[in-house]
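Hey, resending since the last one bounced:
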Amino acid sequence: MGKLRTLLVGAALAALTVGVTPLTAQASSGPALLPPGSLYVYYNTGYSGWCDDWSGEAPDWGSCRNQVSSLFNNGYPGNLDDIWVYWGLNYTGARRGVYQGVGLSDLRQWKFDANTGPGSGEWLNDNISSHRWTNLP
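The structure tokens again:
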């Protein structure tokens, strides 16, 4: 899809509430030259095998549902630029926050937050069904 560029992001994991931790990455390599304002999702790790991208919320990831192994939150900086990814359809079940500008090249390394509903503690890889934009702390 083109050259990859290094995207430096925050290194700290900030707790939203007890047991709910938004995702950041220390030095994530995100896809190159993607237009801002969307969440990009990929079938494979390393941002390969593009599946879809959304500028709005998606209550059902359709053919990408439970099929994604990497993602990149390239939302517009500002209000509602972070995302919650959900285990279930229609923003249900366990969730995990991902900050704006964060690329997660291998979802096998990340789990849904504990005590957030069905799917809590399960791996994000091949296990996300929906997302919505939010403001994480």
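Residues 4-29+38-134 form a domain with the Gamma-B Crystallin; domain 1 fold (CATH 2.60.20.10).

Sorry for the duplicate.
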